[in-house]
Amino acid sequence: MAAKALHFDVGDYVVYPKHGVGRVIELQKQEIAGMQLELYVLRFEKERMTLRVPTNKAESVGMRKLSSDKTMREAMETLKGKPKVKRTMWSRRAQEYEAKINSGDLASIAEVVRDLFRADDQPEQSYSERQIFEGACSRLARELAAMEQIDEPAAQEKILEILRKAAAIYNKDKVPA
């Protein structure tokens, strides 16, 4: 059973669920275990990593083109929403957050960013919360940056600005006692 191959060209930005936004730098043919394979060679600049993905496996591993403008708008709207804080154990929430980030789904990543964001006037985050927040925010920012052809810090600032405005709205409800 051969999976239908997605087609990406050299120079295309793609999203690989576990690693975020990368760029197709080459199409390669290699013989592996006696079989001729055609591979996408992906470069992830931030991680200084190169990944080879068989063209016929690209879809099954979840590799995709950059999101549509509509999907990005929906993700940005998600950031404006009220943070949902679950009262479950941190280890369980951390697993859920990591699963959402690694799904590669922009809306899920935006939910993690929204839920873990802390405004300056809010209580400090734990180290592991901060790590997950920064990972999710970076993943979202890299896709936004690639789509809008801006650098990652500018995209990250755009995201943080939306989060600060939303926090100002939702934190008015909480008056310190």
Short summary of the structure?
By secondary structure, this protein is α+β, with helices and mostly antiparallel strands.
Number of helices: 5
User: Unreliable segments (pLDDT under 50, ≥5 consecutive)?
Assistant: 1-5
Shape: elongated
Mean pLDDT: 88
Order of helices and strands: EEEEEHHHHH
- Major sheet attributes: 5 strands, antiparallel
Distance between the termini: 64 Å
CATH class of the largest domain: Mainly Alpha
CATH architecture annotation of the largest domain: Up-down Bundle
- CATH superfamily label of the largest domain: CarD-like, C-terminal domain
Oligomer: single chain
Describe the structure in your own words:
The chain is α+β, with helices and mostly antiparallel strands. It folds into 2 domains: 12-65, Thrombin, subunit H; 69-172, CarD-like, C-terminal domain (Methane Monooxygenase Hydroxylase, Chain G, domain 1, Up-down Bundle), CATH 1.20.58. The chain is 44% helix and 20% strand. It contains 5 helices and 5 strands, in the order E-E-E-E-E-H-H-H-H-H. The protein has helices spanning 69-80, 90-103, 106-116, 127-148, 152-170, and strands at residues 13-16, 20-32, 35-44, 49-54, 64-65. A 5-stranded antiparallel beta sheet has the order 4-3-2-1-5. A hairpin with a 2-residue loop joins strand 2 (20-32) and strand 3 (35-44). It is elongated and about 65 Å long. The chain starts with 12 loop residues before the first strand and ends in a 7-residue tail after the last helix.
